[in-house]
Amino acid sequence: MIHKPLLSIAAMCGGALTRKQDEELKIQGVCTDTRQIRKGCLYVPLVGERFDGHDFAAQALASEAGAILWQEDHGTPPDGPVIKVQDTLIALQMLATSYLDQSGAKVVGITGSNGKTTVKDMVTALLETKFKVHKTQGNFNNQIGLPLTVLDMPEDTDIVVLEMGMSGRHEIELLSTIARPDTAVITNIGESHLLQLGSREEIARAKVEIISGMKPGGLLVYHGDEPLIPMVLAEADTKKPDDLRTFTFGTGKDNDDYPTGMMFHPKGIIFTSHVHSGEGFSLPLLGRHNVVNALAALAVAEHYGVSDEQIREGLSGLRLTSMRIECIETEHGVTVLNDAYNASPISVKAALDVLSDIKGYRRRIAVLGDMLELGSGEEEFHAEIGRYVSSDNVDLLFTFGPLSTHIAEAATHTLSEGQVMAFTDKTALIEAIVKEVTNKDVVLVKASRGMKLEEVVDALKSLHNGTTR
Predict the structure, then answer these.
(1) Could you give phi then psi for residue 31, rounded to 5 degrees?
(2) Contact 453, 369 (CB under 8 A)
(3) CA 366 – CA 254 distance, rounded (Å)
(4) Right CATH number for 3-87 from 3.90.1720.10, 2.60.120.200, 3.40.1390.10, 3.30.160.100?
(5) How far apart are CA 302 and CA 119, in angstroms?
(6) 236 close to 251: Cβ distance less than 8 angstroms
(7) Boundaries of CATH 3.90.190.20 in the chain?
(8) Per-residue burial over 330-363, b = 16 or more CB atoms within 10 Å of its CB, e = otherwise
(9) In DSSP terms, which residues pair with 445 in a beta bridge?
(10) What string of DSSP letters covers 253-269?
(11) Which of 457, 428, 190 is nearest to 340 (CA)?
(12) What is the pLDDT of residue 341?
């Protein structure tokens, strides 16, 4: 993490020390929450609509924070080591940019409607076989979380892998300007954030903003099956670096890399690709969409000189952020595919494809909840999922939520009436699933985070051997 004297910190964030005696005082790390103060850290009081961190600045110093930032329009700061700045959030972001510049670490930025966290974890696993890597933890992928991730980076880091999220235009542009990526990845363009942005074209423009702060000669790795990305790249208003290089991945053979073979097994997939001809890679994840995600990670790894042998090593030790098709073998013989972290039409279809590909189970059961933030077309998007459901991928379908009734209604045209059950009460849903599930069933649980369907997963995990029929 950042470890610098206050005089340097002040210069890096565009501020000024209030006391000359504090110039050589060193701080270690940055905090924005007084509940997480570490001895000697820099406390940055942020200002929001319903809170003001300046109210807790004196408490931070009393809790052994090494120093604080102080926004000039907030009057007199408490007594102690203080750096005055015009805006504490902008100062935090400037500090992160300066720290990155001074560290010399390469930056890999990752965004996309779906799969960005999975690709972040994959890229990290592959690069770690050769480099010292630091990555975004949890959901620290916004204008506050990204700078904090950077400032928590060890000083000897070789490569930092940063996830970049957004809810509207120009948010990723800001993150790109802060991080200045050497390499960027766009996993895909989906329907998430249609409510805020109104069209997939605008979503594509928001995602392509990741190159707006990229260093000259940078590499953009993107999903080549998506025509909206090259469309946006060609637009006159798109900000891009000089000498931008591109690499495409996807399922289509017109991409720079694409799968040439896939063999499915209960614990994952063995695949080959066009670029790595004759080299088989074992991916410990379910879903052919994850092979496509892996191609993006392979492209980044190869760009940084990671060998095929090191790629195999990295994939073998891959660990993903939880609740992204996490395979859980319960003690009562039911396999749960926990994908309850988030949902969009693209990711739900991909999850249903997982059910279609896996073999050896008595029944394939899908528990699908509402997909949120899809805008005015949300009912049709849910009906589209219902039409995607068929006897090829689902033997029994449970839906949860008012929007998911449209999934259930559409699915009755491909499944029989007894194979589809719709619920708007979660307790009733769980009771029905627990009553129905049997040994050797596989149960997919998929919904937007706000539906909290991990409660269904917890209920299945808590069953005992004698509970199922």
Answers:
(1) -130, 145
(2) yes
(3) 34
(4) 3.40.1390.10
(5) 15
(6) no
(7) 326-461
(8) bebebbbbbbbbbbbbbbbebbbbbbeebeebee
(9) 338, 367
(10) TTSSB-EEEEEEETTEE
(11) 457
(12) 83
Both tokens assigned to 28? 């270690």
Cα(214)–Cα(350) distance, integer angstroms: 31
Say what the pLDDT of residue 324 is.
65
Count of CA atoms in the C-beta half-sphere (13 A) of 259: 19
CA-closest candidate to residue 283, choices 330, 334, 247, 320: 320
Q: Which CATH number fits domain 326-461: 3.40.50.300, 3.90.190.20, 3.40.190.10, 3.40.50.10680?
A: 3.90.190.20
**What is the full DSSP assignment across 93-111?**
HHHHHHHHHHHT-EEEEEE
DSSP-derived letter for residue 52 is B
Give the count of beta carbons closer than 10 Å to the beta carbon of residue 133.
21
What radius of gyration do the chain's Cα atoms show? 24
DSSP for 123-145 reads HHHHHTTTS-EEE--TT--STTH
User: Is residue 456 helix, strand or coil?
Assistant: helix
Distance CA 167, CA 194 (A): 9
pLDDT at 267 > cutoff 60: yes
Q: Residue 464 — very low, low, confident or very high, per pLDDT cuts 50/70/90? A: low
Phi, psi of 104 (to 5 degrees): 80, 5
Selected from 3.40.640.10, 3.40.1190.10, 3.30.2010.30, 2.60.40.10, the CATH number assigned to the domain covering 104-316 reads 3.40.1190.10
Contact 356, 393 (CB under 8 A): yes
- Amino acid (1-letter code) at residue 25: L
Report the candidate in 359, 442, 439 with the shortest Cα–Cα distance to residue 396.
442
The secondary structure of the chain in percent helix, strand, coil, rounded to multiples of 5, reads: 40, 20, 40
pLDDT per position as a tens digit, 74-94: 999 999 999 999 999 999 999
Q: Say which residue, 266 or 11, is predicted with more confidence.
A: 11
Is it the case that residue 469 has pLDDT exceeding 80? no
